[in-house]
Amino acid sequence: MIGIVDYGAGNVGSVHRMFKKIGVDSFIAAKPELLFGASRLVVPGVGAFDSAMEKLEHTGFLRCLNELVIGREIPVLGICLGMQMLFQTSEEGIRPGLGWLRGHVVKFQFEDPNQRLPVPHMGWREVEMTLGCGLFLPSDTPPRFYFVHSYYAVPESPATIIGTTEYGHRYCCAVRQKNIFGVQFHPEKSHQFGMQLLKNFAGFRTQNT
Predict the structure, then answer these.
(1) Active-site annotation holder among 80, 133, 172, 173
(2) For the whole prediction, is pTM greater than 0.85?
């Protein structure tokens, strides 16, 4: 059973509906104690970094998530801002992130005036993936996912990067460290490729680290 964290800063309804569509049992947890019945967790996120981290703390989810993810090693998937919050800091704010992954989050910057692209980055992009990571499976068609964001993560360890894409330059858009996963794109809005990724997250074996 997958618990979707409802801390007031994520598209929990869209994620819940997608899990239902692919036949995966999930529930929306509006209270931290409800997550203790989950075998996997999803942390969606939209909005600003500091506001989202403040809501996690004030709703009591911060302590609960640390216990479940770090203490009990329950698998977790951070989506969009939820992925950025996995890291230590963000240029978008001054509050610390969850700090489960070492690294920081930066804003898109295009110094060359002839190569400046719109920010936020919105639209579909192909993702170059690492197989055997628990989220991606071999495919004859390069997977495409839907993005909406102005910031992206820069992990300290390249070993945590399992997916990259191109927007002005190549950057990290998916990460994994043991039981901790994150994707910058929105699988719940990415049709067949998003459906497959969520199926993979729901079904991967925790011993494959």
Answers:
(1) 80
(2) yes
